[in-house]
Amino acid sequence: MRLTIDDDWLATVTDEPLALAPRFEGNWVDLAPRADTVGRERFLGATFGSREWLWDAPDTLRFDRDTRRLVGARLQMPYLSADTETTRRVPVLPATRPGGLLADEVRDFRMEMCAVLCRAPGDTELICLRDPDVLDAPLEARIGIAPDVGLLVQRGTVVGWSITDPVRHLTTGAPDPTPPAAGTRRLFSACLDLVTQPLFDAVDDGDPAALARLRATDEALRDRTEDRARAEALLDLISTMVEDHGGPALRPGERGRRRLPRLPGPYEHGGMHIVSQVFALVAAAVHLFVWPLESFLYSRRAWVREFLTGSTADAPEVRLWRFNVGFYNLFLACGMIAGFVALHLGHETVARSLILYVAAFMTGGGIMLFVSEPALWRGALSQAVPGVVILASELA
Fold first, then answer.
1. Are the beta carbons of 336 and 280 closer than 8 angstroms?
2. Which domain holds residue 215?
3. Does some domain include residue 335?
4. pLDDT tens across 255-264, in order?
């Protein structure tokens, strides 16, 4: 059987599914060897296929470059939960056919993240679909690429994926082989309600009833002693919502939790708004452009002096000052670029700290330039505006 992904990218179904147990980490299902950030980047560098890049966050399928066989995947859970009427339209899923994938060629592609989440009664199965139109025709196959995880196929094209008994695979580390408790299953459903629309929007709008459900769920998870590892995974899932909407602080002695983005999609990546990322690159470009003008070309080109100061007159006595200020601009640009790279390697805390500090530095520098010489307002704006936009996007 041959499958199409991303319009013209083809793969053949094999008889060798992944032997890895799925790790359901709340926002996604991970089917790859456990690794830290460095190890994951090495894994991505040694394979090909679909992966996130910059602010684009498609689902991930990775293939070995030598054998062209599927070796890992990360499938993201949609944030839009289908209504009851739509869920009733979900056809009976085909029986699972265990199998792996063999790529036709060594070439990257893009596997679009699913848009609609359909939940079976009791959340015994989660069905993630590319779009609601998939429900207009029957599914022809379900390829079990790993235990309890299958790719859904319609007319030869992958149109979604499913996970059976997702609460059993909940984890923040290694998979837990023990069956989940009944109370954990109920709390799992409550958390899914909270992190998907429409209840997510109600919480974000400050609806009192929605906030009460959030706090009640958070307290129930904190007080839970049975099935503790899965409770921790569910606390991670709603942690950002609790922090953002007045929930209780961590109890003394509790471990810190990773911070999850609200809706990582077209406007956000790694917890930073796309506007912040764009203006970080704009700020870096401006400062990189000015660096050689101030450090090397000021005394050699009249247009450079006119551009920077509004006058063609040279001032040899401040050559040393110009040279050093030019390198200040270079180092500020490098700081922005380093923060941008760190963000997309998964080091969110380091990236945010670096980008926000450099943005504040640039903003302050632009303000002082205008205060000291208002005639240079254009240069002050070019220096300060990108930093102001970044700070406003992140701290507002």
1. yes
2. 182-244
3. yes
4. 333 333 333 4
